[in-house]
Amino acid sequence: MLVVFRYLWLTTAFSLWICVLSADNSSSENEGPKCKTIFTFGYGYRQFFHMSQSSLHPASGDLLFMKFSVKARSDAHILLSPSPSPEDLEPVYEIVLGAGKNTFSDIRRRRRAATKTSAYTKDILSGTEQREFWVRMNHQGMISVGHEGEDLPFMEWQDPDPLLILYFSFCTWSGVAGKWIYDCTSDNDS
């Protein structure tokens, strides 16, 4: 089954926002995992996904464990939220990979707010190849971000007053296109 949605949002006379979502969940026995794909362009969280609707498999002690890959030249944003359409000042977790022209990454407690922690991550993203990551949050409010295939995070921050995360979303930054692959399952997962 192939589902394609196209959104054209004109925010100003000079700024066009485009978000394309396509999910292809069909696969044969030899194709490997089934994944969802979303394409983003510009800043703005337009599609929110409920955690229970995705195949996030937390390990023991974790509230969430999310694997995904992204292809973008910079500024890949992941939003973790208690609600499906949070207001600008509402508490959320915003994780930015490859900010500052792909030189650093950070974790924020609100959208576009002050950084809680950051890490030097020059060239962490690529505009020509998918790069794989994971995000983990435990019951004590520790948010960790790492490269797929590596156990140790390259960035983490502990929230003293953790949020209950029920939704997630993806976007990039002005002028930046992104391809996100997430929620991969295989026949072995069922």
Automatic annotation (TrEMBL):
InterPro entries for this protein: Methyltransf_FA
Keywords attached to this entry: Signal
Domain named Farnesoic acid O-methyl transferase: residues: 41-185
Any Pfam family: Methyltransf_FA
Domain of life: Eukaryota
Transmembrane regions: none
Signal peptide residues on this chain, from the entry's feature table: 1-22
Listed name of the protein: Farnesoic acid O-methyl transferase domain-containing protein
Higher taxonomy: Eukaryota, Metazoa, Ecdysozoa, Arthropoda, Hexapoda
